[in-house]
Amino acid sequence: MSYSLEKNMSKYLRNRIIAYICSRLVAYNFIKTMRRDVFQAIADPTRRAILALIALQSMTPNAVAEHFDTSRQAVSKHLKILTECQLLKQEESGREIYYHINAKKMKEVADFIEPFRKLWDDRFNKLESTMKKIKSKK
């Protein structure tokens, strides 16, 4: 193999390796800094149950974990996701951390869902009236 060909191959491989490493670093940083999606968070039934519990009263992670048959670590991960989505707020009281519902963020979710609720209510009302008409004809 000629010297110039070896040099070009070496340069090509070096550039490919650098490009690969850079793309991996960019992807890692993107994932690391990416915020979680609220709707993805509330899609999980355990997280919805956690939200329902904490809506009633502020709770520590241990108090929340007592209501589930999963590990304390699994509950902590759910709490972390809900906090990252800003659905929950943390408040430190001594050595304990209490979780509270973030009412403003929950209202944003409810406001987003409201038009869809109205749409489905209208559709169910039309279906109900159609069913009554069909039933009265028989």
Describe the overall structure.
The structure is a single chain. This protein is mostly helical and 138 residues long. The chain has three domains: 1-34; 38-101, Winged helix-like DNA-binding domain superfamily/Winged helix DNA-binding domain (Arc Repressor Mutant, subunit A, Orthogonal Bundle); 103-138. It has helices spanning 3-33, 38-42, 45-56, 61-65, 72-84, 103-137; strands at 88-93, 96-101. A two-stranded antiparallel ribbon has the order 1-2. A hairpin with a 2-residue loop joins strand 1 (88-93) and strand 2 (96-101). The radius of gyration is 26 Å and the shape is flat. It starts with a helix and ends with a helix. The model has no long low-confidence stretch (mean pLDDT 86).
Compile the SSE list and pairings.
Blueprint: H1 3-33, H2 38-42, H3 45-56, H4 61-65, H5 72-84, E1 88-93, E2 96-101, H6 103-137
